[in-house]
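As described in the Methods, two query proteins were run sequentially through the folding procedure within a single session, without resetting any intermediate state between them. The first query and its resulting structure tokens are shown here.
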Amino acid sequence: MSRPQDPPRSFFPFGNPFRNISPKGTKLSPQLLAVICAFEASLEERLKNLIPKSKDEVLSFSWMTLAMQALRESHNGIKTLMTDLELPVHDWDEKWIDVYLDISVKLLDICIAFSSELSRLNQGHLLLQCTLHHLSSSSSDQFIRACSLLDGWRQHISSKNPRIEKCGSILDNLVGSSDMPKVKKSDKGKVLMQAIYGVKALTVFVCSVFATAFSGSTKNLMDLDVADVYSWAPTFKGLQNLVNEEIKVRFSNGKFTVLYELEAVDSSVRELYPTIRGVVDVIETESHAKIVDKLGGAAENFSQGLDLLAKEVDGFFQVVMSGRDALLSSLRSGATVNDRILGGNRDAQVVN
């Protein structure tokens, strides 16, 4: 599944768009400053929660689920920020709207690709379940069938998903559009663009890690250079360096897959496979039973982690879709963004 010989992809050939926004020199009111500081503090806390306690956590389904949860919460945070700002749609610059809609449509495409890959992996799990069913019998015919199923499982898992293969170009476009529009007259607009920038950096990082893991190639792995002027930048860089370096190490080892739970399943499959290729005296031993149990446990952990991750990806999809729909509805009706997104908040304090 992995191809360690893939050369690293070169990014930012025309300069680094992630340096084009800088809060230096920005003079905001105390109220607006409090809003953006609170938002960025929450963003940094989510980044800290993603720092793995051990390298084994990197690309485990539990870490990936946490990462997708961080994305969902951060994008929800943008909705809450819009409410705090009470920024009506008619006050939005057309460029801001274009940025928001452009980001959202790319994220929806990526979510669809990730969901299709998780569905494909789940189909592979069904092959494992059938294998374990046949291994519960002592019939040599059933062992032959189990061998065939394991061959099918490895072939299925090793195959490429065309939708995942397209994620690289989507991410390139997402990074290429990271040059946020300049905001000259609206302080609220500056706060909104600065917040979107931070969430976008997190989003590109997480999605590039997912695309790398699912594609089996480091060509989708990105190293984003975020300006140090942001309070969350040091935490972001530390997280990105740790995760990306561990991923590169795993690819350099030439593993079948860099996904932790999937590697555990494959390890059990490789251990079990020789014992069911017609070696009758071996398959009847207690050792064989332990190997089968080991595969069963690994397959169960894989399935449970897969289900939780799939739910989070779907949840993130729904957040992006609802935000996009809310903005479009507000544009048609002339209502405020927050009226549509969060059902309105007449008692919310106006931030000047």
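Immediately afterward, the second query was submitted; its sequence and tokens are:
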Amino acid sequence: MSIEVLPTEILIQVLDDASLEVGDLAIISRVSRRWHSAVVPVLYKRFTFRYYHPLDKDDEKKLESFKKYGHHVKCLNLHIKRWSEDHDSLPVPDIDRYLEILESFTEVTSLEHYDIDIRGMGWPTFWEILHYIVCRKQKLISLTVRRNIHWGISPSSDQDVDPDTLLPAPRLPNLTYFNLRVNSRRSGPDTPESFPFFLNNLISALGDSCQSVSNLQLYVKIFETTDPAKLAALWGIGVPLLAIDSLKELRYEMLPGVIPPSHVIDTKFEDTKVLTAPGWVCGRWLNWAWEQVPPGESLDIFNNLETLRITDIFKKDENDDIEADLARVLKHLPKLRSLILEDDERRFSISRKLDGTPIWEEVPFVV
């Protein structure tokens, strides 16, 4: 059977092969008009846009090409390389111009945003971009946002977001994966006092967009403090919660030892099957030596977990009896099937006898 009898939709799937280089596709596109129409959706399926101001001619030309076929772009990677110039006298890029560029990509299902140590991009601009994404990219399935804070950026404040200017961020029915990673690699200007503003602005920007998310990855580390009084004050803060209907998988690290998941996320934690987190998230029963475990429901909310991955050192009890500690974990997590201790590079599989007695078996650790 000749390949020419294949429907164009099937031909597109055949050509959507990672082993085909851009040059190969360019050659194939010259076979006929039909082959050209099959190559274009594949050629423009993924676009990595490295933004800096101003763009050079080659990048402008590439951008215009992808904007022309923007309805074919499914995977969009936004790498902001520079937002302001090295000299204060030069203008900062126009946020409206940047959002206008994103407007061309109407069919995006996977979007990644990176701004890593970008000088000049303060919190208001960051929130505006995030809010635009969840309001205007209705077909998103996966959203990843990574921000390493430049040392000169002002702390989060109640002036970063004006609620009166925000559009209602709708529920994104297809958005099942959301990864937010905000990090300051050194102790920056953000403080415990500014952290509630960060959470308020985050929830304001996201609105109802994440309600269908089933896999949530949250990593926020924007200041360092060991002051017990300041940490205790954070435990009692009241902020809006990120609403999620049913959370199946959670990776969580939010200012270690400070804010439990139940103080940030409004969800059914009994639906959570996989948890990756520092030991403190699971409560004192897991890390007996940790003195700054916040109060709350962190002990019981994960009682239907099947897989638990601890990212920091597993602090064993005073008797240093790993079997006793594992039994204590299982007492609070009766449905646990797998326990992974990343720092110790150990992995345990759990089964049960007919009478319900647990059986622990150490299995090879896989990175």
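The chain has a mean pLDDT of 82. We note this only descriptively and draw no conclusion about the first query from it.
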